[in-house]
Fold this sequence. Notes:
This protein is mainly alpha-helical.
Amino acid sequence: MLHRWYDRVVTTLVVVAVTVMLGAALIGTVSRYLPFLPSISWGEEVTRFAGIWAVFLVAGLTIRQGAHLGVDFLTTTFPPRARTLVRLVNGVLILAFSGLLLVYGLRLAADNAGQYSPALEWSMGAVYLCIPIGAALMIVEGIGVMRGLLRGGPAPAAPAGVTVE
Length: 165
């Protein structure tokens, strides 16, 4: 039940961020070419910030779903135990990288809390918070995937239509 609630919240936030991103890009583009509309100076910033937040929010879910880009033409030839070992090593590397993102993302957000974006005058510390939040979500999901692998469960499979043969 907690997974469904978490999935719903993250998915909703990502849909909102992408909708805001596309809306701001559309408004910015249209206002540039229609002389009777006022030009907006904030469209590019909103588009960029919303896109970055969407990517970091969805990163954890894609770890659980196996949707991150991967090259497996070599590992598919391995025996099952070796394949699992490679996946576990990969998981450890993902957790280590996510840990670095978490630590340095918090530092980046704190160091830039007093800096403001030019058009919207938003605190860049708040904008950069997407990095440690996304890293924390990747750590939580990565631990879940690792636990499943250690218990003998299957590795996350890429969504249908994503594999290249």
